[in-house]
Amino acid sequence: MCTGRLTPANNCRTAGFGSLTIKNNSDDAKDSVQFKWSKGQSTSLAEFGAPSFNAGCALCVYDNGILAMTADVPAAATCDGKFCWKTLLHQYKFKAKSAFHDGIRAITLTESSVGKSKIALRTAGSALPVMPLSNFVMVQLVKNTGDICFSTVFPSADIKTNTVDKFSARVSLP
Is the pTM of this model over 0.90? Predict the structure, then answer.
């Protein structure tokens, strides 16, 4: 879903807190990405879509405005013979023991009507961007329907580590 989208989507929902950690291990199977988006704008489960049925999503990492990494999760995906997505009271959860959907192992999408929506995503063994990254990184989670996206920007002041082995950034907005 990021493929063909060479530049970031506009008008994404933002959050009061975001973090991104990318680890580039000499053993590619141990490469990982962790993205957190929290204290987000009010978002209902309906707005997240129905990943169990028809709304897949993708993680898009942009390095200085250029697509550097993508990881897609199809709707109605199956993992180890079971549906990967579960619908809970206020959340959608994706869990895969073996990381075969572009390396994605876990996603949690949590609704909130009071500005506390959350997204957490974790990959393992995924294709990483070329590191080190620039001093301006943007991460977006986009729905395959294209009607909504969630975004966090990490400017240079919020980047804690940026080497060939690790990228780490945290941003907290007032």
Answer: yes
